[in-house]
Amino acid sequence: MNTRWMPHVTVAAIAVHQGRFLVVEEETEAGLKLNMPAGHLEPGESLQQAVVREVLEETARPFTPEALVGIYLASSPDKDGTPTSWLRFAFCGRVGDADPTRALDTGIVRTLWLTADELAASADRHRSPMVMAGVRDYLAGRRHALDVLCTDASALIAPARPLAPR
């Protein structure tokens, strides 16, 4: 039995336009929740490639990462009560216009542009505490150069074997 602790690695995008943050409303087991466009790092991609892909899938918008805002670790219980840990890399950057011909990812109900105050007021609907942590750090001016993240070429090769189910 493997007892090694392994957090799920995720990426998230912090995109701001005219003082409003791009968020998604998504279906979860706990009902409709608000989140930054976010998702799992997939085999064969860098963290930056993952956040570009996730934003496009969840918002139908192209995303250009400009800086790393922060790295966040949180835990929450899964369906059977077992704690699951999430390691999130949050990037800020620019989004382009939405492609009206592109469908949003499964589970994404809609995209919204909310102010920091509106997000804070809806904290009970956030997918995780990492949503407001990223907003606070962004507003505090936290930015780290993207070259702080190094991806070896060996990580950019997708494995030939099937992945374990999520």
- SSE pattern, N- to C-terminal: EEEEHEEEHH
Shape: globular
Ranges where pLDDT stays below 50 over 5 or more residues in a row are: none
The count of strands amounts to 7
Largest sheet: 7 strands, mixed
Q: With helices defined by DSSP (H or I, 4 residues minimum), what is the helix count?
A: 3
Overall pLDDT level:
93
The CATH C-level class name of the domain at 27-98 and 127-147: Alpha Beta
How would you name the CATH homologous superfamily of the domain at 27-98 and 127-147?
Nucleoside Triphosphate Pyrophosphohydrolase
Q: Under CATH, the topology of the domain at 27-98 and 127-147 is which?
A: Nucleoside Triphosphate Pyrophosphohydrolase
Note the gap between the termini: 18 Å
Family: Belongs to the Nudix hydrolase family. NudJ subfamily.
Subunit structure: Monomer.
EC number: 3.6.1.-
Organism: Comamonas serinivorans
List keywords for this structure.
NudJ, EC 3.6.1.-, 7 strands, nucleoside diphosphate phosphatase activity, alpha+beta, Nucleoside Triphosphate Pyrophosphohydrolase, 37% strand
Question: How does this model look, in words?
Answer:
The model has no long low-confidence stretch (mean pLDDT 93). The protein has a domain at 27-98 and 127-147: Nucleoside Triphosphate Pyrophosphohydrolase (Alpha-Beta Complex). The protein has helices spanning 47-59, 116-121, 130-139; strands at residues 8-17, 20-28, 31-35, 38-40, 63-77, 83-95, 108-114. The protein contains three helices and seven strands. Strands 1, 2, 3, 4, 5, 6 and 7 form a seven-stranded mixed sheet that branches. The longest helix has 13 residues, at 47-59. It is α+β, with helices and mostly antiparallel strands and 166 residues long. Monomer. Belongs to the Nudix hydrolase family. NudJ subfamily. Residues 6-136 form the Nudix hydrolase domain.
